[in-house]
Request: fold
Amino acid sequence: MTLTRPALSLACLIFALGVLPAAGAPHTAKVHAPAPKPRTMQEILDASSASDWRHLDPGNTLYLDLAEGHRVVIELAPRYAPAHVANIRTLAHEHYWDGLTVNRSQDNFVVQWGDAEEDAAKRKSIGTAKAKLPAEFEMRTKAALPGWSRLKDSDGWAPQVGFVDGFPAARDPRHGTSWITHCYGVIGAGRDAAPDSSNGTELYIVTGQSPRQLDRNITVVGRVVQGMEWLSTIPRGTGALGFFEKPEQRVPMRAIRLAADVPVAERENLEVLRTDTPLFDELVEARRNRRDDWYKAPAGHIDICNVPLPVRTAK
Amino acid sequence: MTLTRPALSLACLIFALGVLPAAGAPHTAKVHAPAPKPRTMQEILDASSASDWRHLDPGNTLYLDLAEGHRVVIELAPRYAPAHVANIRTLAHEHYWDGLTVNRSQDNFVVQWGDAEEDAAKRKSIGTAKAKLPAEFEMRTKAALPGWSRLKDSDGWAPQVGFVDGFPAARDPRHGTSWITHCYGVIGAGRDAAPDSSNGTELYIVTGQSPRQLDRNITVVGRVVQGMEWLSTIPRGTGALGFFEKPEQRVPMRAIRLAADVPVAERENLEVLRTDTPLFDELVEARRNRRDDWYKAPAGHIDICNVPLPVRTAK
Reply:
């Protein structure tokens, strides 16, 4: 069942765009000038210590196992959406999603799963999960936001952006609020017109250009840390909003489980890079201004949704 | 061969995120307040006139026909990359890409095609196309940039952003330069370390979060106007940088043709929305501040890569 491929996970973060096969050439750390050349992301990761990484908490980790055998690993965000995360834990624990389907794949936007049954009376029971939850669009923050690691870069959508608990986030100090930003791989709870009409049964994941207009309009519950490619390549639905028009086009899910509910031997042993360390700051700077030989004009800027969040199999 | 589906093209631009099946409910234009409610994007498009649209120029339009029968329609950008576009026209005219393959699919980054042969001596002849071209990373502009339609929104990567000839673009008035921005669907010419090492044979297309760090580091040659979903869902390569590890994983292309080289009966009859009209400005504002009932907090901002560029089949 394990689909962990640390080599790929790291390779996916290397963004060079060369002509094949030269693109695969490793970066060599040549030092010509008196001042040492800044380290590349790979060099920074290679030099990281155990304390730069954190284990995923099994109580906050979901495994979405597609029927065809691929696993997507999701980290939940209880700090931002405690009621939704609690409900999602209950739904997973009671096997709510088992046998349900991915029902929507809209190009450059989202993939969405849940109960495809249109007749509310025939929908699957949500068991002991709550049918009604409060909207958790943003979090009230105190003067200190624990773990807040701010980017110095400007952002058009929010007064401040940075990271909290490994999640890309925004902050509005004047209003004392913070929220997770809709970046690639972020997961939210679909809702109807009413702000409090989501209960976590219907989840969507961002598969395109960051739709930041959704920020503070919907409850974000987590993000994918591994296996994103199994969702992002699902053929697009041809109905309105990318919903599949035929039932057989839906993609079945074998199960969604909380890692804590899975035997240890069947869990992924993953670590993600901490976002509140000097090493992470160095990594962001290495991506803000690319210094490898391929780049001719370092950007001097990075968008919150362009910052890589490395993951690896624990040793 | 025609794969034009205008209903889908417009549906794809509607970004509501409701619970199925309510998500498909049409937006109703309720007017409660004395001031008329701003029009939604759909209402704006429904009210557009013929002069708000332009036909794609067959001399600047490529058809990438995948072997499995799907067509991707690409608009070239001769204003920004005249030498590369001229070479691409020659390569298409002489059937250079026919039978070659998509060789790379890297999640949240790019899909890339060209000659997969690693031995340079065995690679396909480029015919009368030029082996060497100048780098065309940015364009020198005069005080007036024809067709420039500037967004009022801030951008972290460039002094100004907007649209030229229907392409998302940036501008640096101080240095008198302009360039196409790396948004979803934008196509560039892969290169090695040398700035002038691209000749247009090896092309990549952005399939993930806008990699704006590539701006002014590589030559952009055009963008996809229809059929993006056939490239964005190609299974990801498991080799370094998303290259396919096995030859059979590569995705074969039947042909890439300039529309002008294709019989009229086999052409797509497409129009794209002009970006230099008051109607387009109204559409951008409708997306900058969503006013339909679903949105509770209009963003007050839009990113250059979030602006939809509608396409339709001409009547």
Observations:
- Helices of chain A lie at 6-11, 41-46, 82-93, 228-232, 278-288.
- The first helix of chain A runs from residue 6 to 11.
- Chain A touches chain B through 82 residues (CB under 8 Å).
- The CA atoms of residues 189 and 203 of chain A lie 5 Å apart.
